[in-house]
């Protein structure tokens, strides 16, 4: 069973009288435990495709299957449950500025109905995992970019996801911090057996961590394969 299967995905954005055909029949398979890169120019549809995996965007056509569950067929409540097991991190972290680190990380736990005491223990564990033990009572404004992304990673892992989606997760970070975050992601991936899908426009990121890549252009996958095959030297 593949971790993720996307079958003939189309996405048309309708804004007023304009429509944008952002995805034009994308079929992809990501195996369990892979670090999978999605690359391509700005506007190619990378972010849209990533958001279709957890149905943050609903495909106009096609099916999405994660961990054997066909998400595009699920009723709302069941979908919500499955979605909790797909973590996501973003370029600009998307932390709640007025909440402490602990409350940010606990947010998805509260949503999932985890009791306060258990949530507190889990938050401690998650912060240790990302190297921020003892940061519970800090606020996002007191943290560096790399530390904010670590908090976001902890939050994304709160509900024991099988899949982590990364949308330009290192694009706002300097090169050293980028390396540290990528190494952390790889370490977590190995320890937890996660499947990671990352959208990036940074070649260095792909080359450092990805097993396999898809190259997108104008809403389609134009090349796909193991890193070593897609990037053969000319
Ligand atoms: P990438 O991540 O490769 O830069 P995107 O998936 O963000 O590409 O965008 C693909 C296309 O879809 C672009 O033309 C973009 O302008 C359009 N698009 C993305 N999100 C929306 C939206 N919410 N509404 C309308 N058009 C969108
Ligand atoms: P980022 O990827 O850094 O969050 P973007 O500018 O790519 O920032 O996108 C911000 C939001 O705007 C996203 O939710 C995206 O779906 C949406 N968006 C992108 N392109 C368009 C567009 N052409 N029309 C409407 N919304 C868009």
TrEMBL record:
This protein's record includes keyword Hydrolase: no
Keyword ATP-binding among record annotations: yes
Highest taxon of source: Bacteria
Domain ABC transporter: 4-234
One function term, GO molecular function aspect: transmembrane transporter activity
One GO-annotated biological process of the protein: amino acid transport
Record's GO cellular component terms: membrane protein complex
Keywords: Amino-acid transport, ATP-binding, Cell membrane, Membrane, Nucleotide-binding, Translocase, Transport
Protein name, entry field: D-methionine transport system ATP-binding protein
Naturally occurring in which organism (per UniProt): Alicyclobacillus macrosporangiidus
From-to range in the entire protein, with total length: 1 to 234 of 342
């Amino acid at each position: 069973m593949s971790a993720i299967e996307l079958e003939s995905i189309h996405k048309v954005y309708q804004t007023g009288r304009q429509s944008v055909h952002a995805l034009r029949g994308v079929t992809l398979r990501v195996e369990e435990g892979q670090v999978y890169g999605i690359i391509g120019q700005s506007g190619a549809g990378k972010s849209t495709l990533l958001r279709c995996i957890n149905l943050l965007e609903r495909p106009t056509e096609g099916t999405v299957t994660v961990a054997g569950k066909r998400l595009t067929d699920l009723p709302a409540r069941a979908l919500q449950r499955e979605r909790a097991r797909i973590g996501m991190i973003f370029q600009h972290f998307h932390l709640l500025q007025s909440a402490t680190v602990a409350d940010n990380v606990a947010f998805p736990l509260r949503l999932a109905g985890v009791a306060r005491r258990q949530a507190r223990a889990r938050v401690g564990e998650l912060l240790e995992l990302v190297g921020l033990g003892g940061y519970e009572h800090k606020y996002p404004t007191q943290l560096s970019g790399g530390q904010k992304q670590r908090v976001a990673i902890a939050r994304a892992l709160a509900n024991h996801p099988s899949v982590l989606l990364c949308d330009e997760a290192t694009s706002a970070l300097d090169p050293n911090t980028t390396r540290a975050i990528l190494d952390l992601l790889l370490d977590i991936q190995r320890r937890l057996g996660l499947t990671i899908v990352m959208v990036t426009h940074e070649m260095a990121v792909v080359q450092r961590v990805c097993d396999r890549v898809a190259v997108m252009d104008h809403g389609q996958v134009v090349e796909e394969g193991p890193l070593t095959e897609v990037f053969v030297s000319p």
